[in-house]
Write a structure and sequence with these properties.
binds uridine-5'-diphosphate; 9 helices; alpha/beta; 13 strands; single chain; about 35% helix; binds nicotinamide-adenine-dinucleotide; about 15% strand; seven-stranded parallel beta sheet; Rossmann fold
Length: about 325
């Protein structure tokens, strides 16, 4: 297939592009490099089946494709909160523009939504039919509501015949996350490997469920087999739930770091608990994550160790403004 990956130079997108090229597909990576980096796709540039198209998804675009993955959007809270209007527009208007391309090219369309559509969930674990507990204002709203509105646009185009699949991704981590990304796993690994204090926000009792990137990509690839798309959203994530404090302690153990923990104020509207119910993904795709948190962190540490070494100049890890 000829596949467009919007946001393909980012963390998840670059892994997806690599897997699709490896599977024999032709890949167009469309990215404005706002949070992504060329070095994420450097090795792919050598493949005749991979093209990088430097472009913002808000701009007009036509490419001869059979499938479109839309991952274009900042994902880390410090990044999306520093550019709220652009985040909202990228998700809403960018998704609409790519759905128009899907209509013209009769392509399948896969949208990278987020567990953030559930907000600070009152139901636990979160099933796809949970409607969420989300705010239209506050620092997370640009992202949460951007994803929700983009989902709505996806379903409008689905009604007019585009085979759409909406995937709600839960916290995903792995190699190629930026050292200055600002998310929990990248901050804690970078801090531990630099010998800096590990920043735990709040008392660290809030939970997340972390999915290794290869597992997520496997789920994405299986969606390509669904010619008709999906009639509703689909959770993809790892149901192994941990507190942030336990994550920090695990990072210390696995890196062998002597860093201390430091507690900072909890960011505004930080969800208290998050864990996916993945029954639907297992039933529809035969999918479940294979990589334990310990194993995935171990693989990530190899990457972060090298990256920290290459960027030997200390740069403060992006911390959220509470
Ligand atoms: P990322 O920031 O590494 O990647 C996003 C990519 O989109 C970057 O390469 C960036 O340059 C590109 N981009 C942003 N705005 C763009 C625009 N207007 N035009 C073209 N390209 C643009 O983040 P990620 O973790 O790889 O996330 C990828 C997608 O998955 C995002 O849509 C994110 O919301 C979603 N998601 C990720 C997670 C996660 O834990 N990683 C969780 C939920 C949802
Ligand atoms: N977090 C933390 N220290 C950090 C970065 C994040 O304690 O250096 C916490 C954050 O408050 C949240 C959890 O870790 O409770 C996950 O944060 P992340 O930014 O990775 O993702 P999200 O909040 O979007 O799930």
């Amino acid at each position: 297939m000829r596949i467009l990956v919007a946001g393909g130079a980012g963390f998840v997108g670059s892994h997806l592009c690599a897997r699709l090229v490896q599977e024999g597909h032709t890949v167009y990576c469309v990215d404005n490099l706002s949070t992504g980096r060329k070095r994420n796709i450097e090795s792919l540039m050598r493949s005749p089946r991979f093209s990088f198209v430097p472009r913002c998804v808000l701009e007009p675009l036509w490419l001869p494709v059979d499938a479109i993955f839309n991952l274009a959007s900042p994902a880390s809270p410090p990044h999306y909160q520093s550019q709220p209007e652009s985040t909202l527009r990228t998700n809403v208007e960018g998704t609409r523009r790519l759905l128009q391309l899907a209509t013209e090219t009769r392509s399948r369309f896969i949208y990278a939504s987020s567990s953030e559509v559930y907000g600070d969930p009152a139901q636990h674990p979160q099933k796809e039919d949970y409607l969420g507990n989300v705010k239209t204002m506050g620092p997370r709203a640009c992202y949460d509501e951007g994803k929700r509105c983009a989902e709505t646009i996806c379903y409008l185009y689905q009604e007019s015949g585009v085979p759409v699949s909406v995937v709600r991704i839960f916290n995903t981590y792995g190699p190629r996350m930026r050292l200055d990304d600002g998310r929990a796993v990248s901050n804690l690994l970078t801090q531990a490997l630099r010998g800096e204090p590990l920043t735990v926000y709040g008392d660290g009792s809030q939970t997340r469920s972390f999915c290794y990137v290869d597992d997520l990509v496997e789920g994405f690839v299986r969606l390509l087999d669904l010619e008709d798309g999906l009639p509703g959203p689909l959770n993809l994530g790892n149901p192994e739930e941990v507190t942030v404090l336990d994550l920090a302690k695990l990072v210390l153990r696995l890196t062998g770091s002597k860093s201390k923990l430091t507690f900072a104020s909890l960011p505004v509207d930080d969800p208290v608990r998050r864990c996916p119910d993945i029954t639907r993904a297992t039933e529809l795709l035969g999918w479940a994550p294979k990589t334990s948190l310990e194993e995935g962190l171990g693989r990530s540490i190899h990457y972060f160790r090298r990256a920290v070494h290459e960027h030997a100049e200390p740069e403060p890890s992006a911390a959220i403004v509470a």
